[in-house]
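Entry for the shared binder. Reason: the reviewer on the internal report wants the predicted structure included alongside the sequence.
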Amino acid sequence: MEFTKSITVAELLQVKRLNLELVCGKRYIHREITLGSVNRPGLALCGHLDNFRTHSVQVFGRGEQAFCQKENKSRLRANVTKMLEEGQVPCIIMSADLDPLPALRKACLSADVPVLKTTMESTAFVTEFSRFLDEKLAPVTHVHGVLVDVNGMGVLIRGESGIGKSECALELIKRGHILVADDVVEIQKSRGRYLLGSCPTMLKHYMEVRGLGILDVPLLFGVGSTLDETKIDMEVVLTFPSDKPLDRLGVEQKTTNILGVEIPSLGLPVTPGRNLAVLIEVASLNQRLKSQGLFSAKEFSQRILDKMKKGAGKPDAT
């Protein structure tokens, strides 16, 4: 199930790395920030509100301050009021330790929007603030499965309950790979359009294996056997054997969609005698080659086709 996080302006004031302080509007610091984007108002200060980001935090830098100082006070207040009435602006932040002009302050208070300021310059603040919002507000979902770092690749192992996901992960840990999460994997979409997987706090560093119960992985295998989080590079789905024909060559590259991000997906039938841990190791290495443009199955298939074409072009020896 996917859910979206939020943070209040009051919580934002507690983030030391942003160097924020409240200028005015203490009664309104309960307002929530739900979007990870930051906006510089620009043309909105002139009354042009087309494509204005109505639900984003608005950052005023030296350029906006210079414009406000030259603009007619009543016109400025009217434009800012119109800008704030357009949506649910959580707050306005003045960068470079600038103080808001009286017209701006009055417009914000009349719209119940708090005003903050930071000592950081605009570019540095927007970069750091965007990174912070990305960490706090990125979409999150939870999936049933196991996440293991295999050869530096984050492999999400999924399948029906009881099929052997944890046993497979246990074998991978014994072979020197690193556990991130067992049973429940928390997945967050990063601004860079990749998936970051971690373990819910209550389950961190623990595994549940049928017949053995709950295992403390760092105590059994050492502190280097677990990671707090890793990028998810591929999915492996463990399946029960079926009568459906399998893709023996592996030419078809299947994908799965998580939070709008496509990642490669591989199905592995679970049958007696198969060493799934070794297969997943090889699958991770093969996927690394694919990401570098080396697709062994397609190259082999093309080689066969080329051979067939050459053979078809030769005269019949009989």
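Summary line for the report: The chain has a mean pLDDT of 88.
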